[in-house]
Design goal:
Elements lengths: L9 H24 L1 H7 L4 H4 L1 H20 L5 H20 L4 H29 L5 H30 L3 H20 L11 H8 L2 H21 L2 H9 L6 H26 L1 H15 L10 H29 L4 H30 L4 H25 L9
């Protein structure tokens, strides 16, 4: 990690990376808020429109580790700027799409840009932060993504209902272009993050302890996205289909996410990643089944959304810190695999949610998500036992 910017310059660097994650977060999660208008405009069911989330997630899961390996020899600044350029192009294609197939294909381009940017931004955060501040540095970089849920996603939902579902994609494309220019002009050339290779990916895939640890992310995210994929229809079940009310609930979710992200970084540094992740799993097991008790009083629903979103985003800094410790010689690869597992979990959760929605309706989603969170807790405990049993292999993926 030599050649990293000095500590004095780390804070503004992290802020610029957070700006890019704000754009990525808005472009990714805005689809959650506009499933209904997309489905109506393209004459498909909300469950069918969920393919946009699933296809994006699958593409991201496949492209993130491969992209990290294939771009390892390129300048980190070049990769960051180029990834936002791809994100801009994909968002423009989304904005001009006229069919579900065309829109789905455009999301694959968006996924490639995000798959390159987000893991690398985390890798840079690890490179410039001392180990005892790693959780908080990661939380700062990902604050942009959580802030997108406070501002970007509600704004996108409001724009979609006022001006048509194409409008938020045009906005994301413009923001991505602006952010790419900002990074090109301000990111230092000398940032160095140890990168993996295709052979290191194969080595990592053969490392049981690392893979069990990293796939915990997929298990937990699957439980979240069984519910969150159809967050819009769930809001409508309690608060109605008012175009002005829905963005307020997305804003509440975003506020909880921002707070949870920073709390997760603090808890990880203060009490350790494992304890933080156990708490997150238990909270999901308690909170997610409540979404099956519909309709809620809108005020109680607002409280539930705020608390749940705090725990939903609390896990990320802790899990990233844990993985960097498990694979200290290949942090970029470990974080890229983790990013892939986030979207593998999203793909699984959104697919399961769509099937359950077609089968039994909204009422079954919360119970299924809570059960999935229980599996995530078991997964975490098994993973922790494997790592403790043979810590000497923790750098095997390097």
């Amino acid at each position: 990690m030599a050649d990293a910017p000095p500590k004095a310059k780390a804070s503004p660097l992290l802020s610029r990376l957070a700006l890019g994650n704000f754009v990525v977060g808005m472009g990714v999660f805005v689809v959650i808020g506009i499933v209904s208008p997309i489905a109506e405009a393209l004459s498909v069911s909300p469950a069918d429109a969920g393919i946009l989330i699933t296809s994006y997630a699958v593409a991201y899961a496949l492209l993130s580790p491969i992209g990290a390996a294939l771009t390892g020899r390129l300048s980190r600044r070049t990769v960051l700027v180029a990834s936002l350029g791809l994100f801009c192009l994909g968002s423009l294609l989304s904005a001009i799409s006229t069919t579900l197939v065309m829109l789905t294909l455009s999301r694959l381009v968006v996924a490639l840009g995000a798959a390159l940017y987000t893991p690398l931004s985390a890798g840079v955060a690890v490179a410039v932060a001392p180990p005892e501040e790693r959780g908080r540095a990661l939380a700062k970089v990902f604050a942009g993504m959580t802030l997108a849920q406070v501002v970007g996603v509600p704004l996108g939902a409001w724009m979609a209902y006022r001006f048509g579902w194409h409008a938020p994609f045009f906005l994301v494309a413009a923001l991505a272009a602006i952010c790419a220019v900002v990074l090109l002009r301000t990111i230092p050339r000398n940032i160095h993050v140890p990168a993996g290779s295709v052979s290191s990916i194969l080595s990592a895939l053969g490392n049981l302890r690392l893979m069990v640890a990293v796939t915990f992310t997929a298990t937990l995210m699957a439980s979240v996205y069984v519910v969150f994929t159809f967050f819009g229809p769930l809001i409508e079940a309690s608060a109605g289909a008012n175009a002005d009310t829905r963005p307020l609930f997305f804003m509440l979710f975003g506020l909880g996410a921002v707070g949870g992200n920073f709390v997760g970084g603090y808890l990880s540094d203060r009490f350790g990643p494992r304890g933080t992740l156990v708490l997150v799993c238990i909270a999901h097991m308690v909170l997610l089944p409540l979404f099956s008790v519909m309709p809620w009083n809108p005020w109680l629903l607002a409280l539930l959304v705020l608390v749940w979103s705090s725990f939903a985003w609390c896990f990320l800094p802790a899990q990233q810190s844990r993985l960097v410790t498990i694979a200290p010689q290949a942090p970029a690869l470990a974080l890229a695999l983790n990013a892939a597992m986030i979207y593998a979990g999203i793909a699984i959760g959104s697919t399961v949610g769509a099937r359950l929605l077609d089968w039994q309706g909204l009422s079954v989603l919360g119970v299924a998500a809570g059960a999935s969170a229980g599996l995530a807790l078991v997964h975490l405990l098994v993973s922790d036992r494997l790592v403790r049993r043979s810590p000497a292999v923790t750098s095997a993926a390097a």
